[in-house]
Prior knowledge:
The protein is an alpha/beta fold. The chain has helices spanning 5-22, 25-42, 62-70, 140-147; strands spanning 48-50, 74-79, 88-91, 99-100, 106-107, 119-123, 126-127, 133-134, 152-156, 177-179, 184-186.
Amino acid sequence: MPEDKDELRRELRQRRRDFVVSSDVCQLRVHTIVMARLAIEAADKANSIACYLANPFEVDAMPIMQLACARGIETALPYIVARDEPMRFLRWRPEDKLVTGPFGIPQPKQDAPEIEPEAIIAPLLGFDRKGNRLGQGGGFYDRAFMRHSAAARIGLAWSVQEADVLPVDSWDEPLHAIITDRERIDF
């Protein structure tokens, strides 16, 4: 496993891409539905959950949003203004409209109410058995984890994204749980 974070990100992106491309679409869908149930359980009775909209190779978090809405849990998505601004979580439900954010990522309209999430479901490129998470490198989720320190931090990943050990910097915030297509890991 490379020690350089950028090289490690490239390797983990490729693993994730290879896994998704070689997997049966129906099987991946089944995994995401099971993972949604496990994520809601890991959120441990949270009344508000922040999720994300997945790119084509990330674990689809939409089933979590749908299950949370069906259970009356308030849901939100990230809202980003600029790289140096904190990521906020604005209320969003699957029937709400989205706008394109500064990085081309769909996000809620800026007038949607901001929520204080009790659980944050985060995408990731890699994870290890100590709860460490390797993200895209922008630091948005680590800053959000610090800003919402009482929130349960839950990562979603395919099992192939596991690393033996991840390099950790002082600003990296560990997760409380990781949900994969094979298991739920609690820390």
